[in-house]
Amino acid sequence: FSVLAEKLRLHIDESIPLTTDEKEVSIYDETPVDLETFLYNKRYLNLSSKLSDPQLQLVQAGTDILTLPSKYTEIVAMVGQFGGKDFSSSIITARNLYQLLCLKKPQQYYNLAWNSSIDVLNVAVNADQAREIFFSYLTQLIDKAVIFKELGPCRRTLRSIIFTEKNIRAFSGNSEDESWQGHNAIVIVLDEIDAFKSRDELKYDKKRLSGAEGIYTAARLLVQSRFPNIGKIILLSWPRYAGSFIMQRHETGKVEGKTYVVCKSDGSPYATWEFNPIRKKEDFIDEYLKDSESAKARLECSPPLSENPFFPIKEVVLKAFDAQLEPNNKIVWLQTRPIIEDPLIEQPQKYVRYIHVDLAIRHNRAALAIAH
Fold first, then answer.
1. Which of 46, 271, 286, 358 has the greatest number of beta carbons closer than 10 A?
2. For 137-147, how does the pLDDT look when each residue is reduced to its tens digit (9 = 90+)?
3. What pTM did the predictor assign?
4. How far is the C-alpha of 168 from the C-alpha of 98, rounded, in Å?
5. Virtual CA dihedral for 239, 240, 241, 243, nearest 10 degrees?
6. Rounded CA gap, 156 and 63, in Å?
7. Which residues 6+ apart lie within 8 Å of 195 measured at CB?
8. With pLDDT > 90 as the criterion, what percentage of the chain qualifies?
């Protein structure tokens, strides 16, 4: 044992990477507690209500940063609005900060330079959301938890928490400010990714990333360049329209080995009240009475074909092209319908007809005009 102790002293003094056996003896100042204890014990977060099973699955997948390599490098959570995604995100951040602070030499554990920071980021659609929702939750959790006072001093700004002794930092960024790309991020949460402008909407704005797709790509490259096979990017959102970015990642992520998709056993997303244990469907009766299509999109992750469609009932549009409805309103997809032959159309034309399609790239999804 004395020989091993001497080797450990040399490793710590000279910042030499440790072998696997040596790490088991030396890596922690304090051994991290299990997730259940961290969530509900008085010394830790001391939450008053239990998380739902899908919330726990999200937190577990998003905080697996001490296993090298990690099982997942991307987590996709397409969940209904008011489902508690921001609260889950703040718990993920708090848990990751705690685990990093438990390490005796976190920089050495990840083979970084001794003076490197290790950052956990939350990137929201704008500065107000970043500061007033996520960061508010996070600071409340950290202020309340005794453990963070015991693990060392920290200082704060309007959008950061920095544990100075070990250079572990949490930042709240937004899609309108690209400064977050300069951080040494081990975890990046892209909060409400479907609210970020699309690549087409930003096509002519050379000063900014190319929308949700560009921010996602930049975040992946940032995390994997600093923490390959360990770091994570976490996508949280409800879908704004059918085929949106979060819906694409929800579907394609299911067949990717290193991506964890938060979903039910049949692969479908969780509605608000299925994910958030303090909500019930009855809480949103008024929303369904006012606008059932919008409510289904926001709360059940079942969006219309486009945002604010001119024809709000999508079945009418589908039936006009290549679908029909069965008595139970189930959509059945057909082959493309043949061109309708109508003698009224074929008669010598009294008027010139015009059809124009405008696939706009800034504000509208598309426009169709038919006139004579």
1. 271
2. 888 999 999 99
3. 0.77
4. 10
5. -40
6. 23
7. 125, 237, 240
8. 51
